[in-house]
Amino acid sequence: MTALKVIPQLLCWAVLVPVMSRSLTGMATAVTAAAGFVVGVAGENLLLAYVGGELPFRPLRGVCGVIFLLLWGASVWALYRRGSKGSDAEAVSSPGPLAAGLAASATGVLAGALTLCRLAPLDGGAVRLVPYLSLACAGAVLALAATFPARYLPERLAPRGIPLLALVVSALMVMACSVQRLDIFSPLSMEVMKFIHDFVHQFFESMLIPDHPFFRSDVWGYIGLLFSDKVGLWGGLALWYLPVLFIALALRLERLPSVAHIRQGAARRKLLASFIHERRLRLVAPLFALVLLTGAAYQSRFPATEYWDPKPVEVTATPAGQIVIPKKGEMDLEDGKLHKFSYSQGGRQARFFVMLTPAGQLVTTLDACAICQPEGYGQAGNAVICYYCKTLIPLETVGKPGGCNPVPVPCSVKGDAVVIDAMTLLNTWESTVQVTAHGKGMGK
Amino acid sequence: MSRFASIAKRVATSPAVTPCVLALFLLLYVGIAFGSNEPLTALMAITRGNVALLALLALVPLSGAARLVAETATFLKRRRMFSGVAGSDPAGLFEEAVALPEQAPFEGEGERLGGQGYRVRAGSGWLSAGRGVTLFPARFLYLLGVTLLFSGLLASLTGRATHRQVVLEGEALPVSRDLVQRIVLKEEPGLLLQRTLDIAVAVEGGGERHFGLYPPGKHRGYYLYPRYLGVAPLLRFSAPDLPGGFEQYAVLSIYPPGKEDTFQIPGSPYRFIFQMAPGEGPDPYASGRITLQFRVLKGESQVFAGSAPLGGETSGGGYRVALPEFRRVVVTDFVQDAGVPLIWSAVALLLWSLCWFVPVRLLRPRQEILVVRHAEGVSAFSRAEGGRRAHAGRFHDLLDQLQPVAGGEP
C-alpha cells in the first residue's frame, strides 16, 4: 500500500527525466537528477525526523508557489515575445553544462523531497527506513534508466526553454498536490475566491453602486454568482491553466518567417509548411503540461486521504439558553477527536464542534471558518482540514481565530460538562455564514 | 533627438511597462495575502500611503498616453505614405518590405489587385492597395481607456474622501442650508434596479434638486452615495421608574425588514432593539405603512417587548411606547472622488473598443500593399491586421508578377 501511494509521483519522475536529459545534456543530466532526487529524499526525511511539525513542509510549499509564479512570469514573457522574428527554437540555445546540471539537480532535489512527503506519517515523525530507502533507490534507478528511452525521443519533440520549464513545473505540481500539506491549488482557489469577493465589494464601493436591497433580484442573482462556492474553483483553474495556455498560445502565434524574397511559390510554401509543422510539434510539451496540471488539480480536489468526520449530534438548550454537553457521555469529548454537534432554534441553525487540543484545553468552534463557504471540517492525524479550501489547520491552533481556522465560540467547562451560550452560538454562526456565503458587505 | 530623449521615448512607449508594473503589484498582493485576510484592501491602503508605489502606478497611465501619441503618429505617417506623400521613412511601418529592381513594372498591377477586392490608388511612382477596416480606432480607444482607467484609480486612491452622514427629512443637508423635503422610495423596476429613491432637496437660493440611487448626484463637490435606509420615529417612552417619560427622534437603520438597530435612552439603563416588521403587502418603507417590532432591555434583561405601527402606541406592565410620527432617513456617504467619472469613462471606452475590434478583426481586417519607386529602385511593403497568410499569398503573387525570376532581397 505504501508503494502505491507514490506511483503517480514516480510516474511523473519517469516521464520528466528522459525529457530533461534529451533537452539538456543527456546522460549527465540523468545522473545529476538521480543524485538530486536521493539528496531531496534524504534531506526531507532528516527534517521530518529532527524538526517535525509543519516546518518541513512550509519551505517546500513556498518553493512550489515560487516556481509556479516563475512559470507565470515566463509565460507572460513568452506571449510578449511572440512577435519576435526568429522562431523559438532558433532563439533558445541549449544551456551550458553548469546551468543544465543546476537545473537537473534542483528538479531532482525538489522531486525527491515532494515524493517523500507523500509517505510522511500524518501524526508526525520520519518515514520508516524501508520505504525511505526504497523510494531513494527507485527514484535514482528510474532517473538513470531514463537515459535509455531518452535516446528514442525525437529531437523535434524535446522541448527547450519555456516549454521545458512548463513541463517540469507541471510535473512538480502533480507531486506537490498529492500531499495535502504541499498542495497549492486549493489555497490558490481560496485566494481567488477572496480576491473576487474583495474586488466586487471594492468595485461597488468605489463606483458608488447601491447595495443589494435596491437591485432587481434576478440581476442580484447574476452578481451573486461571483460569491458562489464554485467561483474559487473556476477562478483557480483559470489561473492554474493560464500560464501553460499562454505558452501554447505564444507558440501558436509565432510569426511565420518572411518569405517575400523567395520568388518560387513552391519554395515559399515548403518553407512555411516546414515551419508550421515544427511549430505544431513544439505545442506537444505545453499540451502535455496541461494534462499534468489537470491531474494535479484533480488530486487536490479529491484527495486520497480519509478524514474523521462524525455526523453532527443534535443538541438542545436549557430554559436559561445554555447548551450543556457532558464530557463523558455517549462520546468522550477528551479523546482528542473532533465531535460535531448541531443546534436549532426557531428556524435558525448552527453547526459546531468540540475537541481537546494537544495543550489539554477543550475548545468549541463553529464548523466553519471566517473565509470559506461553510462546508465544515474533518480531522486527519494532528490537523483538521477545511473541506472547502483544503487548508490543514494544526490542532495546536484550533480554538484560535484568524485565517481559515474554525471560528471559536466562547465556552466554559462547568464540572463534567462543556457549557455554551446558545444565542452567542447562533449569532456567531449567522454573522460568519452571512459574510462567507453572500460576500463581505454585500449582504447587509 | 538626443540619446537620452531617444531612450526615454523608447521606455515610455514600451509595451512592457504596464505588464511589469502590474506584475509587481501582483507580487505585492501575493505577499500581503500571506499575512492578511483582506489583501486587496491592505494593498490599497499600503499603496495610498507610499509615494514610491504611487509613482510606480502612475507609470501605467503615462506609458499609455505615450503609446497613444506614438501609435497615432505611426498611423498618420502610414496613412500619408499610403496616400502617396513622399518623404516618409517606411521603417517599422510595415511587416514585410522587399526591394525590387528599378524596372519592376508595378503600374499595371492595380487592376489585378482591384479584382482581388483591394481599393487601389496610384500616382506617379507609387501604388497602394488596401482592403478592410482598420483596427486603429479600437486600439486608440483601448489605449485611451487604459490611460483613463489608471488615472482614475490613481485619483481615487490618492484623493478620495468619505464622510458618512444621516440625511433626514426636514433637516438640512450637511454643510449647507439645503433642506431635505422628502425621501421617497418607489417600486419601479428598471433595467438593473428594483427600486428608485428620490431625495428631494429645496436649494437655499431657491429651486429644487433631486438625488437618486444611480448615477449619484453631486452636492457641493461630494457625491451622495445612499448606503442604508432607515426611519427616525419620534419615540415617546415611559417606564415605572421613568415616570417623566422620554421623547426624542430615534434614528434607526432598520431597512430592509429584519435588520436590527439599537437605541439607548440617554441617562437611563433602558435600551431599545428595533426592527421593521416585514408585512405582507408592498414594501413598508415605500408605502409608509411601517410597523416596528421592539424589545426593551434594562441592563441585560428584557423587560418589555411588542410592536407598534408608526403613528400608534402600545403599553403593558407599566411601560408605554408611542411612535406618533416619523421621518424617513437615508444613511449616506458623502464622497469626494475625482476618479469615479474617469473610471466609468474608461469602462465605456474599453467596451467601445471591444465592440469595434471583434467584428472588424473577424470579418474585415485591414490589409495593405504599397509599392513605391524611388531613386535606388522599387520597394514593396505589406502589412495585415488579420488574415495574414491569405494576404501574404497575394502580396507574394504580386512580387512574382513584378520580378518573375529568382532574386530580390529580404
From TrEMBL, chain B:
It comes from the Bacteria. Keywords: Membrane, Transmembrane, Transmembrane helix. The chain crosses the membrane at residues 51-70, 140-159, 342-363. This is ResB-like domain-containing protein. It comes from Geomonas propionica.
